[in-house]
Amino acid sequence: MLRAERILRRYERKLLRLENVVGTGLGYKIIEGRITNEPAVIVLVRKKKPERELPASQVVPKKLDEVYTDIIEVGDVRLLTARTQKTRPAMPGMSIGHYKITAGTFGAVVRDQITGEPLILSNNHVLANASNGRDGRAAVGDPIMQPGPYDGGGPEDVIAHLYRFIPVEKDVTHSRCPIARRGENLLNFFVRMIRPDYRVAFMKHRAAYNLVDAAVAKPINPDYISPEILDLGEIRGIAEPRIGMTLVKSGRTSGVSKSEVKALNVKIRVMMGAGEEATFYDQILTGPMAQPGDSGSLVLNENMEAVGLLFAGSDLVTLINPISAVLKLLKVTF
């Protein structure tokens, strides 16, 4: 390996002057997917190309002196923090959020069915603070920041204002009934004398029906947003999901990830916060493809057709609103 290192230092500058080369390193020659014991100079390129497509002056030699070279395709390498930085125009796949939340994902650029104006699509819980419209958690016109507050977004980073959202109705919530509140306070007065660290809370149960966790925001300047999804490209239409379909998303936290559809027409209870649950119907379930902060990501098939809007998940599964329901209820289109 010392010999390979000396040769790398001798040729490093020459290699880095090649148009497609972005880096170099040391390793072992890989033949048909198998790592050999032969030391090699590693040449990192944006994209592997057949030699016949390259000018002779741009071809990486198979050997440098007596040491083999090995080429590894790495794509366009960029700082991973780009998704959480302030960017104008901002792209789907980047951090965004209502001023009262932490951060979620800018899902896509959609258009109002009536005015044709471009709007930012994401989840209700990303753009409208998981509001049902009556709880004071959010209101039309609220500021939306890019990046989201957790990623440093502040008043100077407002990119849009909340424009429209589908209420999220919860099955279990803290009771707002005045009688229940008085009873709660009375019980807690006595509980504190016995168990100071304990607290009694009255919870309200109701049968709720949710189809989507979705909202749109109107940018303060249309030039502040771009329709191209970060690391994926432009949307080419919509498609219905099917079992086994491979789906992909570009999210604020985990970037680009894939999984397969495991179930359709899913009815499931989702934890919306401390002591709060909501039931969602007719959902798409896939394997794991998201982490906290990826909520709001647009989910597409391998043809870059929109299939759904990612809104929840665990270490084992991911839940997605069908895109047809999202577009219909929000009265928007691509």
Automatic annotation (TrEMBL):
Species in which this protein is naturally found: Thermosediminibacter oceani (strain ATCC BAA-1034 / DSM 16646 / JW/IW-1228P)
Protein name: Nal1 N-terminal domain-containing protein
Start and end residues of each Nal1 N-terminal domain: 7-65
InterPro entries attached to this UniProt entry: Nal1_N, Peptidase_S1_PA, Peptidase_S1_PA_chymotrypsin
